[in-house]
Hints:
By secondary structure, the chain is of the alpha+beta class. It contains 3 helices and 12 strands, in the order βαβββββββββββαα. The protein has one domain (13-211): Distorted Sandwich (Glucose Permease (Domain IIA)). The protein is 13% helix and 29% strand.
Amino acid sequence: MQAHPVLDPRIPQSAYKKVDLSVSNASLGDALSDASRCQEFLTAFLRQENGLVAWGGYLEKRDLYRDFEHFNPDSEHTREYHLGIDFWVYAGTGVYAPWSGVVHSWAHRTAPGDYGPVILMEHRLENTKVYSLFGHLSIASLKGLSRGKPFRRGDLIGHLGTWEENGGYAPHLHFQLIYDLGGFRGDYPGVCSFSDLPFYSRNCPDPIEMLQYC
Protein backbone atom coordinates (compact mmCIF):
# COMPACT_ATOMS: atom_id res chain seq x y z
CA MET A 1 0.00 0.00 0.00
CA GLN A 2 1.25 3.47 -0.86
CA ALA A 3 2.39 5.22 2.30
CA HIS A 4 0.82 8.44 3.51
CA PRO A 5 3.41 11.18 4.22
CA VAL A 6 4.60 11.01 7.83
CA LEU A 7 4.67 14.82 7.99
CA ASP A 8 1.97 17.37 7.24
CA PRO A 9 0.75 16.38 3.74
CA ARG A 10 0.41 20.06 2.81
CA ILE A 11 4.22 20.21 2.58
CA PRO A 12 5.01 19.54 -1.10
CA GLN A 13 7.45 16.77 -1.94
CA SER A 14 9.61 19.33 -3.76
CA ALA A 15 10.24 21.04 -0.40
CA TYR A 16 12.07 17.98 1.00
CA LYS A 17 15.84 18.43 0.67
CA LYS A 18 18.39 15.76 1.54
CA VAL A 19 21.01 16.89 4.04
CA ASP A 20 24.35 15.31 4.97
CA LEU A 21 25.06 15.26 8.71
CA SER A 22 27.75 12.57 8.50
CA VAL A 23 31.33 12.74 9.71
CA SER A 24 32.42 13.09 6.07
CA ASN A 25 30.73 16.51 5.70
CA ALA A 26 33.51 18.97 6.51
CA SER A 27 31.15 21.95 6.17
CA LEU A 28 29.34 20.96 9.39
CA GLY A 29 32.04 22.32 11.67
CA ASP A 30 30.56 22.39 15.20
CA ALA A 31 26.96 22.53 13.92
CA LEU A 32 26.04 19.37 15.81
CA SER A 33 27.45 20.53 19.14
CA ASP A 34 24.10 21.80 20.43
CA ALA A 35 20.50 22.33 19.35
CA SER A 36 20.83 26.02 18.51
CA ARG A 37 23.90 25.57 16.27
CA CYS A 38 22.25 22.62 14.56
CA GLN A 39 19.12 24.67 13.92
CA GLU A 40 21.20 27.52 12.48
CA PHE A 41 22.93 25.11 10.10
CA LEU A 42 19.64 23.53 9.00
CA THR A 43 17.92 26.89 8.56
CA ALA A 44 20.77 28.11 6.36
CA PHE A 45 20.74 24.84 4.40
CA LEU A 46 17.01 25.00 3.74
CA ARG A 47 17.19 28.66 2.76
CA GLN A 48 19.95 27.88 0.25
CA GLU A 49 18.05 24.87 -1.13
CA ASN A 50 14.67 26.64 -1.09
CA GLY A 51 13.25 23.85 1.04
CA LEU A 52 11.09 23.33 4.12
CA VAL A 53 12.20 19.89 5.38
CA ALA A 54 15.77 18.61 5.62
CA TRP A 55 15.87 14.83 5.60
CA GLY A 56 18.35 11.97 5.64
CA GLY A 57 20.49 9.89 7.92
CA TYR A 58 19.82 6.19 7.26
CA LEU A 59 22.99 4.29 8.30
CA GLU A 60 24.80 7.63 8.43
CA LYS A 61 27.90 7.77 10.65
CA ARG A 62 27.58 10.85 12.88
CA ASP A 63 29.51 12.62 15.61
CA LEU A 64 26.25 13.85 17.09
CA TYR A 65 26.02 11.22 19.85
CA ARG A 66 29.57 11.02 21.21
CA ASP A 67 28.96 13.20 24.27
CA PHE A 68 25.75 11.49 25.40
CA GLU A 69 26.45 8.94 28.14
CA HIS A 70 23.09 7.38 27.30
CA PHE A 71 24.50 6.31 23.92
CA ASN A 72 28.03 5.38 24.92
CA PRO A 73 28.32 3.86 28.41
CA ASP A 74 30.97 1.54 26.93
CA SER A 75 33.72 3.42 25.08
CA GLU A 76 34.75 0.25 23.23
CA HIS A 77 31.41 0.12 21.37
CA THR A 78 30.73 3.71 20.33
CA ARG A 79 27.25 4.08 18.89
CA GLU A 80 27.41 6.44 15.91
CA TYR A 81 25.49 4.79 13.02
CA HIS A 82 21.98 6.20 12.66
CA LEU A 83 19.27 3.58 12.01
CA GLY A 84 16.31 5.70 10.94
CA ILE A 85 15.50 8.74 8.85
CA ASP A 86 15.42 12.20 10.38
CA PHE A 87 13.02 14.83 9.08
CA TRP A 88 14.22 18.22 10.37
CA VAL A 89 11.38 20.74 10.40
CA TYR A 90 9.79 23.21 12.80
CA ALA A 91 8.31 22.18 16.16
CA GLY A 92 4.57 21.64 16.08
CA THR A 93 4.55 20.03 12.63
CA GLY A 94 1.91 17.31 12.41
CA VAL A 95 3.02 13.65 12.30
CA TYR A 96 0.81 11.09 10.52
CA ALA A 97 0.44 7.33 10.28
CA PRO A 98 1.97 6.12 6.99
CA TRP A 99 -0.12 2.94 7.09
CA SER A 100 -2.99 1.63 9.16
CA GLY A 101 -1.95 -0.02 12.40
CA VAL A 102 -2.28 -0.07 16.15
CA VAL A 103 -0.35 1.47 19.02
CA HIS A 104 2.24 -0.95 20.35
CA SER A 105 3.81 1.16 23.12
CA TRP A 106 4.99 4.64 24.04
CA ALA A 107 7.19 6.45 26.57
CA HIS A 108 8.64 9.78 27.56
CA ARG A 109 12.38 9.12 27.54
CA THR A 110 13.94 12.07 29.32
CA ALA A 111 17.69 11.29 29.33
CA PRO A 112 19.74 13.87 27.39
CA GLY A 113 20.02 12.73 23.79
CA ASP A 114 17.17 10.22 24.09
CA TYR A 115 13.89 10.25 22.13
CA GLY A 116 11.86 12.40 24.46
CA PRO A 117 8.22 11.44 23.74
CA VAL A 118 8.19 8.38 21.47
CA ILE A 119 5.42 6.21 20.00
CA LEU A 120 5.76 2.76 18.43
CA MET A 121 3.07 1.42 16.11
CA GLU A 122 2.50 -2.06 14.70
CA HIS A 123 1.53 -2.58 11.06
CA ARG A 124 0.81 -5.53 8.81
CA LEU A 125 2.22 -4.91 5.33
CA GLU A 126 1.76 -7.67 2.75
CA ASN A 127 1.57 -10.28 5.53
CA THR A 128 4.75 -8.96 7.17
CA LYS A 129 4.66 -7.40 10.63
CA VAL A 130 6.54 -4.10 10.76
CA TYR A 131 6.91 -1.67 13.66
CA SER A 132 7.30 2.06 13.16
CA LEU A 133 8.97 4.33 15.69
CA PHE A 134 8.21 8.05 15.96
CA GLY A 135 10.74 9.85 18.16
CA HIS A 136 11.13 13.45 19.41
CA LEU A 137 7.42 14.24 19.57
CA SER A 138 5.68 16.74 21.83
CA ILE A 139 4.63 15.62 25.30
CA ALA A 140 1.00 16.32 24.35
CA SER A 141 1.28 13.66 21.61
CA LEU A 142 1.23 10.94 24.29
CA LYS A 143 -2.18 11.90 25.65
CA GLY A 144 -5.04 9.50 25.06
CA LEU A 145 -2.90 6.57 23.93
CA SER A 146 -3.74 2.99 24.81
CA ARG A 147 -2.22 -0.32 23.82
CA GLY A 148 -3.88 -1.58 20.64
CA LYS A 149 -5.50 1.76 19.81
CA PRO A 150 -6.12 1.69 16.04
CA PHE A 151 -4.88 4.30 13.61
CA ARG A 152 -5.87 4.47 9.96
CA ARG A 153 -3.50 5.44 7.19
CA GLY A 154 -3.24 9.23 7.25
CA ASP A 155 -4.49 9.71 10.83
CA LEU A 156 -2.75 12.37 12.90
CA ILE A 157 -0.46 10.73 15.48
CA GLY A 158 0.95 13.81 17.16
CA HIS A 159 3.26 16.78 16.67
CA LEU A 160 6.99 17.43 16.79
CA GLY A 161 8.38 18.64 20.09
CA THR A 162 10.64 21.55 20.94
CA TRP A 163 14.25 20.98 21.99
CA GLU A 164 13.22 21.37 25.63
CA GLU A 165 11.03 18.25 25.43
CA ASN A 166 12.52 16.16 22.59
CA GLY A 167 15.80 15.09 24.16
CA GLY A 168 17.71 18.29 23.47
CA TYR A 169 17.76 18.35 19.67
CA ALA A 170 16.75 20.82 17.01
CA PRO A 171 13.11 19.89 16.21
CA HIS A 172 12.82 16.83 14.00
CA LEU A 173 11.12 13.47 13.60
CA HIS A 174 13.18 10.33 14.00
CA PHE A 175 11.28 7.75 11.95
CA GLN A 176 12.47 4.15 12.05
CA LEU A 177 11.14 0.82 10.84
CA ILE A 178 11.80 -2.40 12.74
CA TYR A 179 10.97 -6.02 11.96
CA ASP A 180 11.69 -7.58 15.37
CA LEU A 181 11.45 -5.44 18.51
CA GLY A 182 13.18 -8.07 20.60
CA GLY A 183 11.04 -7.35 23.65
CA PHE A 184 11.48 -3.57 23.66
CA ARG A 185 8.54 -1.42 24.69
CA GLY A 186 8.46 2.34 24.31
CA ASP A 187 12.02 2.20 23.01
CA TYR A 188 14.37 0.68 20.45
CA PRO A 189 17.97 1.57 19.59
CA GLY A 190 18.09 4.34 17.00
CA VAL A 191 21.88 4.38 16.80
CA CYS A 192 24.32 1.47 16.84
CA SER A 193 28.02 0.67 16.86
CA PHE A 194 29.94 -0.50 13.80
CA SER A 195 30.15 -4.03 15.20
CA ASP A 196 26.34 -4.21 15.53
CA LEU A 197 25.62 -2.62 12.16
CA PRO A 198 25.12 -5.91 10.20
CA PHE A 199 22.30 -6.99 12.54
CA TYR A 200 20.55 -3.64 12.79
CA SER A 201 20.76 -2.87 9.08
CA ARG A 202 18.86 -6.13 8.44
CA ASN A 203 16.34 -5.59 11.21
CA CYS A 204 15.74 -1.91 10.42
CA PRO A 205 15.04 -1.45 6.69
CA ASP A 206 15.52 1.85 4.86
CA PRO A 207 12.36 3.86 5.63
CA ILE A 208 12.62 5.87 2.42
CA GLU A 209 12.35 2.73 0.29
CA MET A 210 9.15 1.73 2.08
CA LEU A 211 7.70 5.25 2.26
CA GLN A 212 8.37 5.68 -1.47
CA TYR A 213 8.94 9.42 -1.36
CA CYS A 214 11.73 11.96 -0.92
